[in-house]
Design goal:
mainly beta
Length: 59
């Protein structure tokens, strides 16, 4: 049986200029990172590799 997770936690360094954007469905989730260069405009997806820590939590 697969375990159901209620929470995704993503850890990134504090000094970066991007944030994680998470999309999820019943069977899977995806994470992409979006730049924060100008708060007036929509961010652009970061194309380089990003090191981050992912924790899946269930209660």
């Amino acid at each position: 049986l697969r375990k159901a997770y209620q929470l995704l936690r993503i850890e990134i360094p504090e000094d970066v200029d991007f944030y994680p954007e998470i999309s999820a469905g019943r069977q899977r989730f995806s994470v992409r990172f979006v730049s924060i260069h100008d708060m007036e405009e929509r961010g652009k997806q970061v194309i380089e590799d990003i090191n981050f820590k992912l924790t899946l939590c269930s209660f």
